[in-house]
Q: What sequence folds into this?
């Protein structure tokens, strides 16, 4: 704390030098006591008393610093503050000018106050036109501002300086005292706050432990009473102490209260649990996920049972706890899945066997026809060969049935128009779409005839429109369903290997929602992939759409715009508008010349094909490899008049082989042989450039009919 002082620094600012000297004389030299010289030489000289000496020691002393203008006064104030020796009082002439017009002293007083808010300011003036109210307004605060009219009496100025100095000193000491007191209060407050914090922390810890204990108890009770598993607690002898509703229902009790007191070992035995529960629990360790089948007459319930024994302080069992989880429904679904997988495997096996069997029949029927053509009419050989051919054809029909069986899912396609089906599907969908989502339809084609399964088309629409509306159920928006022709200049087109764009009709479902995140968009067609909450989606919707479209020889593509929406484009091939041409085979078909490239990966079939074709006068080049056949064609492409190729071959399929051949020579006639009619369609083959196709096993009549269609007119 600052000590009391009797030394005060005073700043005097006046343009009149005589006034500055007067300020100094009044404050520093003038005194009501006799001068020291009078005390020494006066007749009544006496020594000062002790009280007078002490009083003189504490009498205030003034140090006066003079300045003649505002600039020097301001600099003096800055210098004093920088040295840590602030002025107690500032005596400032208001005008600082003989003219008496400018108020430079008043402006200086404002500046001094801004430098030191604690300095006591005295404004002096012999004349002024500014009211005192204006002084108080400009030089704040008023309690640290005085006005003295010139001329003044010396004792008045001396008394003013003494009062202001004492006031300045008292305020400084009070300020220091307040700061000291504030620091002490702050320190004590800090200690008290620290103690309060420790107390609050201790209370919070106790409250947290209590809440955790209550939450644990609540959680245990919730888990115990939750109807996910059948839970029970029993005494060591099996008496039920507590159970939940699921456990009571499993053992035909109306409520958990009715089950209290019953014996779990007896209940287990009456439910037909197989091995006694006592025997299962006698094995050391906890019984975990033991699969048990409860039998009630013809009903069977599959359960997963977990039980453990709670031991007391001395190790003796004090309680038995058990959890029974009903897995009957998952078991049923597992059995259905197993049966479905079995049928799928059987279908795949049947398809593979049928394909190989077709090739075997091709050899049998091919040679039978060759032998039949050279046998004597009405001879025993002709009759026997005819029976072999008849049996081979029956076997071929049987293979066709096997191939139909090997197709996955029912095939109920028929020619239909999409517009009525879309309108019907949207009527069903409207009730499930949020009211803030608008449905817009655009029908921009009158050629919407497709070969499709109506039920599966319904599934496509409901899945795509349902997903689009769900994406906007919060923000609202519009779902636009468009049915249009496909043009070659459209921004989204089906792959070229599916055929020309014009033979497709496009069904687009677009929304104005938030779009799909890029990492999600890459997986939207993956089975079981979903971004919906658990229980709201299976992740099979778009995968099913993709599978249906693919089985219809179509194509589906996502057009994604994150932040502004998404669109799914479904391309479906139109129903065939061009019938497969029929050609009558002349009774005596004789070709003058012709060179044919025959390709099949089965050598016996190439041998039969060679014999059939050579018997009609053709030159035949046979290959069992599509790669070798392509090299042979590249070497002498102009020498061949026609190509016959199998579809299912290693390295390169018949269609792929045909595309490569047509790149070399676009006008070469090509016949495709296949054992499965769904693998090809006439429209698709025509778009690729293949002239015709025949079904295996290859019969001479079918082969000659196809050749006649392609080479007629040559």
A:
């Amino acid at each position: 704390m600052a000590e009391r002082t009797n030394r005060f620094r005073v700043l005097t600012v006046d343009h009149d030098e005589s006034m500055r000297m007067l300020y100094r004389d009044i404050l520093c030299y003038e005194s009501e006591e006799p001068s020291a010289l009078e005390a020494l030489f006066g007749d009544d000289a006496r020594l000062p008393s002790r009280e007078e000496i002490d009083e003189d020691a504490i009498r205030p002393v003034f140090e006066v610093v003079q300045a003649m203008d505002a600039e020097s006064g301001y600099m003096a104030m800055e210098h004093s503050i920088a040295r840590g020796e602030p002025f107690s009082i500032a005596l400032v002439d208001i005008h600082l000018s003989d003219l008496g017009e400018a108020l430079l002293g008043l402006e200086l007083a404002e500046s001094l106050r801004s430098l030191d808010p604690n300095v006591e300011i005295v404004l002096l003036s012999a004349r002024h036109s500014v009211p005192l109210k204006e002084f108080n307004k400009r030089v704040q605060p008023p309690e640290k501002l005085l006005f003295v009219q010139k001329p003044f009496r010396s004792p008045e100025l001396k008394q003013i300086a003494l009062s202001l100095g004492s006031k300045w000193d008292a305020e400084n000491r009070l300020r220091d005292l307040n700061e000291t007191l504030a620091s002490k209060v702050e320190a004590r407050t800090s200690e008290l706050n620290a103690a309060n914090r420790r107390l609050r922390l201790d209370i919070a810890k106790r409250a947290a432990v209590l809440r955790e204990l209550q939450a644990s108890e609540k959680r245990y009770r919730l888990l115990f009473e939750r109807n996910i598993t059948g839970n029970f607690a029993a005494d060591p002898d099996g008496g039920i102490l507590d159970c939940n509703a699921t456990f009571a229902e499993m053992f035909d009790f109306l409520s958990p209260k009715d089950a209290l007191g019953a014996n779990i070992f007896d209940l287990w035995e009456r439910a037909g649990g197989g091995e006694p529960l006592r025997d299962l629990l006698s094995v050391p360790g906890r019984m975990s996920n033991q699969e048990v089948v409860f039998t009630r007459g013809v009903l069977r319930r599959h359960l997963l049972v977990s039980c453990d024994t709670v031991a007391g302080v001395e190790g003796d069992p004090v309680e038995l706890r058990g959890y029974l989880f009903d897995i009957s429904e998952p078991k049923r679904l597992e059995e259905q899945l197993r049966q479905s997988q079995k049928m799928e495997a059987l279908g795949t096996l049947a398809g593979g066997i049928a394909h190989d069997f077709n090739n075997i029949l091709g050899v049998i029927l091919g040679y039978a026809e060759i032998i039949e053509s050279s046998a004597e009419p009405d001879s025993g050989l002709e009759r026997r060969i005819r029976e072999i051919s008849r049996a081979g054809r029956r076997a071929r029909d049987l293979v066709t049935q096997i191939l139909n069986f090997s197709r996955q899912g029912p095939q109920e396609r028929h020619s239909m128009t999409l517009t009525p089906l879309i309108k019907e599907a949207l009527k069903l969908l409207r009730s499930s779409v949020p009211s803030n989502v608008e449905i817009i339809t655009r029908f921009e084609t009158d050629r919407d005839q497709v070969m499709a399964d109506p039920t599966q088309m319904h599934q496509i629409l409901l899945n795509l429109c349902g997903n689009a509306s769900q994406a906007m159920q919060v923000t609202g928006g519009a779902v636009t369903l468009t049915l249009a022709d496909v043009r070659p200049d459209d921004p989204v087109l089906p792959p070229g290997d599916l055929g020309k764009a014009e033979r497709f009709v496009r069904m687009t479902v677009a929304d104005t929602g938030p779009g799909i995140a890029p990492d999600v968009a890459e997986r939207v067609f993956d089975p079981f992939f979903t971004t919906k909450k658990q229980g709201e989606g299976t992740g099979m919707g778009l995968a099913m759409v993709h599978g249906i479209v693919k089985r219809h020889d179509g194509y589906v593509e996502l057009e994604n715009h994150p932040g502004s929406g998404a669109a799914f484009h479904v391309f479906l091939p139109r129903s065939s508008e061009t019938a497969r041409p029929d050609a009558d085979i002349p009774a005596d078909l004789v070709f003058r010349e012709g060179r044919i490239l025959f390709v099949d990966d089965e050598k016996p079939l190439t041998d039969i094909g060679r014999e059939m074709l050579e018997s009609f006068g053709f030159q035949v080049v046979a290959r069992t490899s599509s790669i070798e056949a392509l090299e042979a064609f590249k070497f002498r492409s102009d020498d061949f008049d026609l190509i016959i190729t199998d579809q299912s071959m290693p390295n390169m399929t018949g269609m792929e082989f045909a595309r490569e051949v047509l790149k070399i020579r676009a006008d070469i006639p090509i016949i495709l042989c296949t054992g499965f009619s769904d693998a090809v369609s006439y429209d698709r083959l025509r778009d690729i450039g293949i002239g015709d196709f025949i079904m295996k096993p290859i019969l001479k009549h079918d082969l000659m009919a196809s050749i006649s269609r392609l080479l007629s007119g040559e």
Summary: Residues 154-225 form the longest helix (72 residues). DSSP finds 22 helices and 22 strands in the chain. Confidence is low (pLDDT under 50) at residues 31-37, 583-592. The radius of gyration is 55 Å.
